[in-house]
Each structure stands twice: as C-alpha cells, then as structure tokens.
Design a protein that fits this description.
The complex is a heterotrimer of chains A (325), B (231) and C (513). By secondary structure, chain A is of the alpha/beta class. In chain A, 41% of the residues lie in helices and 21% in strands. In chain A, helix 7 packs across helix 13 and helix 8 crosses helix 13. Chain C is an all-alpha fold. Chain C is globular, with a radius of gyration of 23 Å. Classes of the chains: A alpha/beta (325), B alpha/beta (231), C mainly alpha (513).
C-alpha cells in the first residue's frame, strides 16, 4: 500500500512537472550570472507563475539580437530581455516581435511610447574615474587634457555604440571634429566593457567609459568610495534596456505576465544592486542607500531608435576616420 | 629456389639489370664495389624497390609485385632490425604474428628460438640493454621463427668485430639449414664469402653476373672482381 | 603493394576538417543577402591584418632563434622546468595574458613604476608596438619550441665531431644549425602568421583604436551588429584565402627534409664554451619577458581565490571534460593525417590543416548553428561543437609536432615493418604509437591546454546551465567581480598547465632508446 502511494505520488509529481509551462527568456550573459539579477528574478517569478522560467544567456546585447535573427520565426524564445534603444529599430524590423501590453508609471527621464519594447532599467553613460583626481567638465575639457580614457569599440560593444551616439547627440555635425580632438586621449579601444573596465581598475587608464551607476557598485558592494563618475555639462547619453515578446511565442499569456512582472516592485527592486542600473519604475522602497551619492546629469540625451539606426553607419565611419589618423 | 628473370630497376640515372637462378638451399654472397647496385638488387627482390621490367619467382611462385611481407622472404638490414621499445621476445614474436597476440605454442616457439641463438634468458630485455652481438642474435632468432624460403642479408653484421661477425655468419648458416632457406647476403669481405657461402654473385656497375661456386670464382676471378679485391 | 598506413584515413581526416569548415561557410552563405561590397575600409582592414601578422611572425621567430639556440647548447638546473614554463603564454586566454602583460609593461605597470622612481616617463605600449609585443608574448615560446625540436634532431655524434675538431660557433651555425633552421623557420613563420591573422581581442585592446582593426573584428561586427551574413562569409573567405595562401607558400618553400639517424643520447655540446654570458642573457630576457606577466597573473589570482563562487568549480569541471574531449578528437584527426603526410612525397597537404586555424571560429560556430538548428536545439551541442572547433584550431600544431617524428619512424622502421607484415592497426599499436609517444603526449597536452583557454564558439551556443571556465571568467568580469575573475584566471592557468603537463609527462615516461 505504501509502495502504491509512493508510486502514485511520483506519477502525480511527474505529471504535474510535465504540465509546468516553460518560459524561455533570452538575455545577456551578465544578467544570468550569480551576481546578476537572474537568480533572484527567477526565484521571484516562479513563486507566482507556476511555471519554469529559463533565463538563457546569449552573449552581450548585440549578440542577443543576432541570435534571434539567426533563429528566426522558429526560435524557442518567448521573451528577449536586454536590447537597448540603439538596437530596437533593427529588432523591430525583423517582424519577430509582438506588441507588449505593459502599463506602468515609468520613472525614466524621458517619455516612453514604444509599443513593442518595454524598458526594465536604464542608466547614463559616463566616464568613471578615481575620486581623487580633477575631472574635465565636458568632452571639450577632456580633449584639451592629457587624460587617457579606455573606451569600447562601437562595432563589438553596446556601450561603445552608446558613446558614439552620445557624441553625435551632443555635437551633431561637429562630432567628427570632437572625435579627432579626442583621439590623443583614447588610450585604447576594447572589444567589450569588461576589458576596458579591467584596464581602468589596473590603473592603465585615467577614465573608462561606463555608467554613472558604476561607483555605486564599489560603494555598496566593496564599501569603497574611491570611484566616481564625471558629470559632463553637454548632458549624458542614456542607455535604456528593454524587453520584447516574440510573436511566435508558444506561451503568449505567460510572456505577458512576465513582462508585467518585469515592471513590478518584485523585479524592479532587484535591479539596482545586481545589474547596477536605475530601475525603470522606482520601487516603493525607493533606491538603495548609496545611490543618492551618484551624480545626476543636468540633461539626458537619447536619440530615438529610428534616429539612432539612421545615424549609426555615418557616425561609425566618422569615428573610424577620426581615430584612424 | 630463386629465379630472377630479366629484372630491371631504374633509379634516377642508375639502372640495374639482373637475370639469374639460385637453387634452393644455396647460400650466396653478393659481392661488388660500393654503388654497384648490391642493395638495390636485394631491395628489388625484397619488394622495397619497384622494378620496371622482369620477374622474381621464389619456389615457383611469382612475387614481382607482391608486398614485402607476402613474398616468402625474411630480410635483415644494416640497422634498425629490432624495435627498440619492444623486448627481444616481442621482436621475435613479430616474426610469427604481426599482431603480437601469441598462442601458447607460439610463445614456446619464441622461447625455443631464443635458446637456439643462445639468448635463453634475455627474452625480457630490450635491444638497448644488450650488446650488438646479442641484438644480431635476436634478429636471427626472428628469421628462424619467420621460417621463410628466402633470406636476404644487407650487411646486418657490418658493425661487429671479425670474431663476432664470423660467429654470426655461422649462426646464419645454422638458421638457414634449420629452415632450409636460400640465403642471399651482401658482403665486402671475401673471407666471409668463403666462410658462409656456397656461391658468389658478382655485381658491378648495375650488372649482375651469373652465380659461380665460391672456390671457383676465388681461384679464377674475373677482371672486375680482381680489381675490386685488389689482387 | 599493400596500402600505405593512413593513405585512406589520412585524407579522410583532412577531408573531414575541410568539409566541416566549408559546410559552415556554405550554411552562412545560404542565409546571405546579396550583393556584398568589399569597400576601401575593408582593404585597410586587410592591410593592417596582414601587416601586424607579418611583423608579429618576424619578431616572434627572430627572438625565438637566439633563445632556442641558447637553450639547445646549455645544460643547467631547472632547464626542463623553464622550457615547460615557456609554453605557458601560448595557452593563456587572451584577456588574462593582456592584463598580465600590462601589469608589467603597462602605464601603471612594474617597469613604468621603476621608470617613475628615476623620473622617466612611463612606457606606452598601445599601438602597433603593443599588438606585436603581445603576439610575440603568445607565439615566441611556440616558435622557440619548434626550433628547439628541430635542432634536437641533429645527432649527438655530429656535436662530438664538432668538439673534436674544435669548430667555431659560426662554423657550427653554418654547417649544422642553419640547415635545420632553414627547414623549421618557414613553417614556424607561417604558423605564427596565421595565428596572428585571426587575432582580434589582442589587436583591439592593445592596438589603441580603429587603426588596429583586424578581419576577425570585421567578421564579428558583421555577425553581431549588422547581422550581414553575406558580408561575414566574404570576410571569412578573405581570411581563409590569405591564411591559406601564406600556408601554401611557406610549405612550398619548405625544403625536403633530410633524415639522419643517430643514437639518442643526451646531447652534450662542446661548441660556444666562451659564449655563455650571451646565452644567459637571451635566456634571462626570454624568461623575464614571459614569466613576469605570468607571475602577475598568479599574484592577482591568489588574492581572488578566496572570493570565487562555487560556480567556478563546476565550470572547471566542464572545461576539464571539454578539453579532454577536444584533445581526443585532435589526436584522432592528427594521427592519420600525420601518418599520411609522413609518407607523401609532397607535404603541401599540410596546408589544409592550417585551414582550421585560419577559419573564423565565429563563422564555424554560426554556420553549424544554422545547420543544427532545424534538427535539434543547438544548446545541446554547445560543448561538443566547442571541443571540435578547438580540436580543429589545434590541428596544425599537432600535425607539425607529430610529422617529423612520424617521418623518422617510417625512415627507420618502415622497411622492417613492411617485411614483417605490420599493417593497419597492428602497425599503429606496435610500432607507430610507441615510437611517437613523446610527441603524442606533447600534442595532446597542447590541444587540451588550448581548449581550456578558448572562449570560442561556446558563447554563441550559450548553455545557461553549463559554462566553460573562460566564459565564467568573462561573466565574472562583466559583473564587476574583478578579484574573483582573477582567481578564476589562476584556476584556468593551473588547469591548462596541469593538463598540458600531465599529457607531456605521460609522453616522456618510458621513452624507449
């Protein structure tokens, strides 16, 4: 009898397991790492959804879009989380994404009206430096200084592309001139964020292209107040990270509820100290201690996805020509 | 019996032609100046050097184009007759089974061959651990188990001292008698021929003369052989 | 005549490699949008790629010759350990090595600090200097090893003769060392050239900007940002052509290899007795240049060891078995190819093996992703495909290592084996494998170590549950976990080195005389 019950229990359990819907979310690598938001997000969502949430790391933000294009309409992904506004125009063009149904009071410095992609966090690009040095107040000062900066290649990295757009948004047609003035300050250009940030921490570069929120990591996780971000008076370009639902998802309702969960407090309160970005909807509990020490740019810069996509190739050529001198 | 009919080997601008017959069980010394084609002749008979014309027949079977191991021939070279990483017993065992998986009676045969060449206790040694003479004995022990109708020797004992070399030649004769093999051996020393051969094949400038009895040719050498021997 | 060993399996293995690469290329092309333009900027990229690879190959080999010469003619305590350690940079993941190099030669590095004390400006190695320096760091040890192995084929008897005749180092160089060098150097140059041709992260990080754009970066951009598969395929094809061309030329000018049989004794050298300070200088220079950055990696890694999460250990396990699988595949491909080439009159087919190195891993990965995707979830093949791609990248090294030994075996024991009827598997088991065991161990070790250090295609297939150690290290770096990443780098170094050492030691045990 006991044996029979055990068997029945096992059968029921496996039947229940077999019926558990699986939601597959493609995201970037650092999101799923042990320190990223991934583990906490997965636990929190699975508590409420009666589903199996699978977060699948697929390289960096750019790789994510390439992966979706590669898999096309047959992709197993239900949601893609981690594109930024520089890539959303291209993503939309694939026709693989469905409109979202997310409604939330976004606390972004800009209006959000995209009906395909919903933001989950955002940040300002900034040059991070050691707190004990004199810093330039803008790109012009930086170009006139002897400071060495480490930046990322816009052809292989999303922050690199962000910097390109930053200079374009701030200087427009004068961007090429600014880049050629900056060229002697560029210590080096790396493939990704990790490499440049590593160079900065090793003391190779005076400043590194990162985020205004980077010092918060050092302050909160390492109790080190020695890093700061330099406020530039031209304004700071924003990175808004978004998620979108795939049109061919076999779990459309579950995908919708994940997207709704994404802008809820449960998800948003995880973001600041795991992804080290600003939450797209500030949770009721507010921002963690330490975030108040961060600089707040006077002006937020952001090209619309369409403008960013249109400007990209030209800006890239200008950048390459200026730095290849 | 070994029949070489109109055999022709061409290597670059050197050509060798040979046409002779050796009766079964004969021991034949191959003599001639350096570069005359002695090694080429043995290589062609052994299946290592391709021929352009002619036939080689061993015991009535044509082997002109057969692979070296399918010719009924055992051959010893100047060096490299034993694999240094295998024991003497394993090296000899290869003569019975290239796969080296020996049955009990085959192991017995190897042990017997080792005893026959005076290496009874050396089966587990590797070639590097024994003397040059003992290496030669082991190679002869393999010839013994190979039990082929034709034995070719391309100066395998050249590096040995005179006494040791004489000993090896005697052992070779014994092995040949045991197996009933016909022997073709290259040598530089007429005394070797007198000691261990019944006939002599004189090779000069790519030509191979008909075999003659040792005593006969030594008593009455042709002009070219006389020059070679320095008489 | 019986079939030669490897005459079927050799071309089959080489054909498999070519087919795997071509299939990937065709798969990528099948999804391409036409037309594709190869513009002026692309030509500039091609020029820089070839130029930096040429310089890197020349400097690596030029530095390797005196170092190998010094190592070949000196016996000193710790020489064996030094020779082994010199192999380490080659198997380091790029980012680890670059940070190690910068810790020593960077703006804030040890050398610059030393210069600061005497009021000199810090070193600046960014630019072509840095690129070439890093490439020399990676490849000089490889070139040294190749040249050293070449010189070790000179029989000891010839050096006894040198000692007896009292020949000068210059004469020894002309009569003994130069002929071997002439055989080894073109191959070494070609190999380093091809390796540097596909360099990407090194060239970018130390190159200082878009001046230092290589083809591989252009391929990366085409795949990742533009998703222009046609362009990616064309660029991959250009890379294959340049590398393949270099390989064919180098192997074509390779003179036929003359074999000499000598008894294997530890080589004692009587020449160059008075030149030991010169040799000591070269050895010291090489050791300093290569070992200091490694030391920096070790020091920073020790600090991070305590901060590593347990996931590093599971990644270590994953990397261990990927590397083992990769080494196994490598040997299965390399052995028949080497046996085939060892008996071939013309070694040109060796160039085929360089294709594995010249092909962009991203191209192979994407191609196979496209091929696998309709049939199965590519994630399930992430690790086997990684192992296979790693094996293909290591193949030219393995063939280079095995080929001379294999030629020697056929020269020394080919006739004997044929006469005894040793064919096929028996020939492998009884003759070939035992005779080439040292080279086999070395090649397998190199393959395993290269695989451990490779970030490679695993990122493309990305399995959320299992990550290789380099991927884990990158994830740590991407999450501000710099210390933990340093710790993981040290584990990576230890694993790569441990696997190499294990295989190499296995090969050298019981080497028969």
């Amino acid at each position: 009898m006991k044996y029979l019950m055990t068997t029945a229990a096992v059968l029921c359990a496996s039947a229940a397991w077999a019926e558990t819907p699986v939601l597959k979310v493609y995201t970037y690598d650092s999101f799923v790492s042990d320190w990223g938001p991934g583990p906490a997000v997965e636990a929190a969502f699975e508590e409420t959804c009666a589903c199996d949430l699978q977060l699948i790391g697929a390289g960096d933000g750019a790789a994510l879009l390439a992966r979706i294009k590669l898999e096309g309409a047959r992709s197993e992904a239900d949601v893609v989380l981690g594109l930024d506004t520089n890539l959303t125009a291209a993503a939309k063009e694939t026709g693989l994404f469905a409109p979202h149904s997310v409604a939330a009071e976004f606390t972004l410095p800009i209006e959000w009206s995209d009906d395909t992609f919903a933001p989950f966090d955002w940040g300002y690009f900034a040059f991070v430096h050691n707190a004990d040095m004199d810093v330039p107040a803008n790109f012009r000062d930086l170009a006139d200084s002897d400071l060495k900066i480490a930046i990322q290649d816009p052809r292989s990295s999303t922050p690199g592309l962000g910097l390109l757009m930053w200079v374009k948004a701030a200087y427009g047609d004068d961007a090429p001139a600014m880049w050629s003035d900056l060229s002697d300050n560029v210590l080096t250009v790396t493939k990704g964020w990790s490499e440049s940030y590593g160079l900065f921490l090793e003391g190779e570069a005076d400043m590194v292209l990162s985020y205004t929120t980077s010092p918060a990591y050092h302050l909160i996780a390492e109790e080190d107040a020695g890093k700061a971000a330099a406020p530039f008076d031209e304004g700071h370009y924003m990175q808004v990270e978004v998620a979108g639902k795939l049109a061919n998802s076999d779990q459309p309702e579950l995908a919708d509820s994940f997207m709704a969960f994404m802008v809820s407090d449960a998800f948003q309160s995880i973001i600041p100290t795991t992804n080290w970005m600003y939450p797209a909807v500030t949770p009721a509990s507010g921002l963690p201690d330490g975030f108040e020490t961060l600089i707040t740019p006077a002006k937020a810069l952001l090209l619309s996805p369409e403008d960013a996509a249109a400007a990209r190739d030209g800006a890239l050529a200008e950048w390459r020509d200026a730095l290849a001198q | 019996m070994l029949q070489v009919d109109g055999l022709r080997v061409v290597q670059g601008d050197f050509a060798l032609s040979a046409d002779f017959t050796i009766k079964a069980g004969q021991r034949v010394a191959v003599i001639g100046p350096s570069g005359a084609g002695k090694s080429t002749l043995l290589g062609a008979i052994g299946g290592y050097t391709p021929s352009v014309a002619g036939r080689v027949v061993v015991d009535g079977r044509e082997i002109t184009n057969a692979a070296p191991d399918m010719r009924g021939i055992a051959m010893l070279f100047q060096d490299g007759n034993l694999f240094p990483h295998l024991t003497l017993a394993q090296n000899i065992g290869l003569g019975l089974r290239p796969a080296l998986r020996l049955a009990a009676d085959e192991r017995q045969q190897v042990a017997h061959a080792l005893g026959r060449v005076g290496l009874g206790d050396f089966g587990d040694r590797k070639p590097g651990d024994v003397s040059g003479g003992q290496q030669s004995r082991a190679a002869l022990a393999r010839v013994l188990v190979q039990n082929q109708p034709l034995l070719l020797l391309d100066e395998p004992f050249a590096a040995l001292g005179p006494a040791l070399r004489a000993e090896m030649l005697d052992l070779t004769s014994e092995v040949a008698r045991d197996t009933g093999a016909t022997v073709l051996m290259i040598t530089h020393a007429p005394e070797d021929a007198e000691r261990a051969a019944d006939q002599v094949l004189f090779v000069d400038e790519g030509r191979v003369d008909a075999p003659r009895a040792v005593a006969d040719i030594m008593a009455n050498p042709p002009e070219a052989l006389r020059t070679y021997l320095g008489h | 005549m019986a079939r030669r060993t490897g005459s079927v399996s050799g071309p089959t293995a080489a054909g498999t490699v070519v087919a795997l690469i071509l299939a990937a290329l065709v798969a990528v092309l099948s999804r391409a949008d036409w037309p594709v333009v190869f513009g002026a900027a692309d030509w500039a990229v091609l020029r820089f790629t070839v130029w930096q690879a040429t310089l890197s190959a020349l400097f690596s080999v030029a530095f390797a010759v005196p170092v190998a010469r010094a190592l070949a003619r000196r016996r000193f305590a710790g020489r064996g350990l030094l020779v082994t350690l010199l192999g380490a940079p080659f198997i380091l993941p790029v980012i680890v090595a670059v940070l190690g190099l910068l810790a020593v030669f960077g703006r804030a590095g040890w050398v610059s600090q030393g210069l600061g004390w005497v009021d000199l400006p810090p070193l600046s190695i960014y630019g072509l200097t840095g690129v070439v320096m890093a490439h020399v760091f990676f490849n000089m040890p490889l070139a040294t090893r190749l040249i050293l192995q070449g010189w070790q084929t000179i029989p000891a008897e010839q050096f006894r003769l040198v000692g007896q005749l009292g020949l000068s180092p210059a004469v020894v160089f002309r009569t003994l060392e130069w002929p071997v060098l002439r055989q080894v150097v073109p191959g070494a140059l070609a190999l380093v050239f091809v390796i540097c041709l596909t360099s990407f992260a090194v060239a970018l990080t130390l190159g200082g900007g878009p001046r230092a754009t290589t083809l591989e970066l252009a391929i990366y951009q085409a795949f990742r940002f533009d998703f222009n598969l046609g362009r990616a395929a064309i660029l991959s094809l250009v890379q294959l052509t340049v590398a393949g061309g270099a390989a064919v030329i180098a192997l074509w000018i390779l003179p036929p290899i003359v074999l000499q049989t000598g008894r294997d004794r530890p080589v004692q050298r009587w020449d160059a007795r008075g030149l030991w300070p010169l040799d000591a200088m070269w050895i010291g220079l090489a050791a300093g240049f290569l070992l200091l950055p490694l030391g920096a990696v070790v020091v920073s890694g020790m600090i991070g060891l305590g901060q590593m999460p347990s996931s590093v250990w599971s990644s270590t396990w994953t990397s261990l078995w990927v590397a083992t699988l990769s080494a196994g595949l490598l040997i299965a491909l390399a052995l028949p190819i080497a046996a085939w080439l060892a008996q071939a009159r013309w070694g040109g087919a060796e160039a085929l093996t360089l294709l594995g190195l010249a092909a962009s891993p991203l191209m192979i990965g994407t191609g196979w992703f496209i091929l696998i995707y309709p049939w199965a979830a590519p994630v399930r093949f992430a690790l086997p495909v990684t192992a296979l791609v790693n094996a293909m990248m290591a193949l030219p090294f393995a063939v280079r290592i095995l080929l001379p030994a294999m030629r020697q075996v056929f020269a020394d024991y080919g006739r004997l084996s044929a006469g005894l009827g040793l064919h096929g598997l028996d020939l492998w088991r009884i003759v070939l494998l035992p005779r080439i065991r040292p080279q086999l161990g070395f090649a397998a070790g190199l393959g395993a170590a290269l695989s451990v250090g490779d970030l490679g295609v695993v990122t493309l297939f990305a399995d959320p549950e299992v990550a290789t150690l380099p991927l884990q290290m990158y994830r740590l770096m991407g999450s501000y976990q710099t210390n933990a990443a340093s710790g993981a780098a040290l584990i990576l170094l230890g694993l790569a080195f441990g696997m190499f050492w294990l295989c190499d030691a296995w090969g050298r045990r019981h080497v028969a005389g």
